[in-house]
Design a protein that fits this description.
Blueprint lengths: L1 H30 L2 H4 L26 E7 L6 H15 L1 E7 L3 H11 L6 E4 L8 H14 L4 E6 L20 H10 L3 E5 L16 H4 L13 H14 L5 E3 L9 H10 L3 E4 L4 H4 L3 H10 L4 E2 L8 H12 L24 H17 L1
Parallel strand pairs: 1-2, 2-3, 4-5, 5-6, 6-7, 7-8
């Protein structure tokens, strides 16, 4: 009896396994072996949730100042300038802060974009490959050519310069005369501090921004400062230079814990933050993000940092102005998460889009 039961049990298991195999094969035929051939990088979901209950955000609700835009690195600048102005008009952008580098690059771009003084303000970089005196001399030269601020100055852990040149961080004593000169000239500085936290985390199954962070990973870089250490260098500079206005871009890459940014804003009145290219991060935590930005409505400024296409602008408006839920922006964002609108209040939008930037630019 036991032997027969065992035989029947074995036969039953074989039938089940065979059936599952046939089902799997049928599924593979229907999908073309999709589970084996579809790559994560090709995944482009389309939301089928019908949750859109806001008016399409085609323009900024109030005249906006884009505090973070880079001049084109290739192509004809005259053509780029006309396209930029046209798209600004369509999107309701009153003025754009354009980062233009130093030296000949700044001069060439200034010759073109300075033709639009009411719409575009030029900011230069810092030439740090020589002495501090050289850096200040070039800064003053750019100011005479039309620069009204400095940015984007970036440190992702290895210092303010890339390549083989010996580098330094923003709180290095060699930077003190330069940062003091900015205060003397009334020039704000846009500072890029680190990168998003996920880029420093291990590239493993637990990294919930793995798809994006893998392409910008920093976990495999040796002898660099981590994000917490970089924020410390910024805080040191803020302490030493209270008369210098800092615009720390990208939420200072504290979107994983906005309270860290709040602590700095509470302590340092010379600090502002732009939201450029991080709207898709906070669009995954819309409730908390709204609460935070409303609390610090006098210190957060609008910025894009993603070229100047109309879809790009409109995605930012979609996030900041509406309370739509679960939508994607694959055409203008690297971020694979589904997004939701933060829905800032009108009072905050006016400050965020315009008034805070005006206060910075008047300094």
């Amino acid at each position: 009896m036991t032997e027969n039961m065992n035989s029947m049990k074995t036969l039953f298991i074989a039938i089940v396994c065979s059936s599952l195999c046939l089902v799997s094969q049928a599924q593979q035929r229907r999908t073309g072996g999709l589970q084996d051939s579809l790559l994560h990088k090709d995944y482009r979901p389309v939301s089928i949730f019908n949750t859109s209950y806001a008016t399409p955000a085609l323009k900024a609700r109030y005249p906006a100042i884009d505090m973070h835009m880079h001049a084109p690195r290739a192509g004809d600048p005259e053509t780029a300038a006309k396209e930029l102005i046209n798209n600004m008009n369509e999107a309701g952008i009153e003025k754009t802060i354009l980062f233009c580098g130093t030296g000949k690059s700044f001069d060439d771009l200034a010759d073109v974009f300075s033709k639009y003084p009411d719409r575009i303000q030029l900011w230069c970089g810092l030439e740090l490959s020589g002495t501090t005196a050289d850096a200040i001399k070039e800064l003053e030269r750019c100011v005479k050519k039309g620069a009204r601020g400095v940015g984007e100055i970036s440190d992702k852990g290895s210092g303010l310069l890339r390549g083989d040149t010996p580098s330094l961080h923003i709180d290095d004593p060699k930077m003190d005369p330069i940062l003091d000169k900015l205060a003397e000239l009334g020039l704000p500085i846009n500072f890029h501090c680190g990168d998003p936290r996920w880029m420093y985390e291990p590239m493993d199954p637990h990294n919930d921004l793995l798809f994006e962070s893998y392409y910008f990973r920093l976990d495999n870089k040796k002898n660099i400062l981590n994000l917490d250490q970089l924020v410390e260098t910024l805080e040191n500079a803020l302490k030493k230079h209270p008369k210098t206005t800092f615009v720390a871009c990208h939420f200072i890459n504290q979107t994983y814990n906005l309270n860290n940014l709040g602590r700095l804003l509470d302590k340092y009145p010379n600090l502002y933050s732009d939201v450029s290219q991080r709207e898709s991060y906070v669009a995954t935590i819309p409730g908390f993000a709204k609460q935070f930005i409303e609390k610090y409505a006098d210190r957060i400024v609008y910025g894009t940092d993603q070229g100047y296409s109309l879809p790009m602008y409109r995605n930012t408006f979609h996030i900041w102005q509406t309370t739509d839920e679960h939508f994607y922006a694959w055409d203008v964002s690297n971020t694979p998460w589904p997004l939701s609108g933060v829905g800032l209040s009108d009072a905050t939008l006016k400050k965020f889009y315009h008034d805070n930037a005006v206060r910075i630019l008047k300094k």
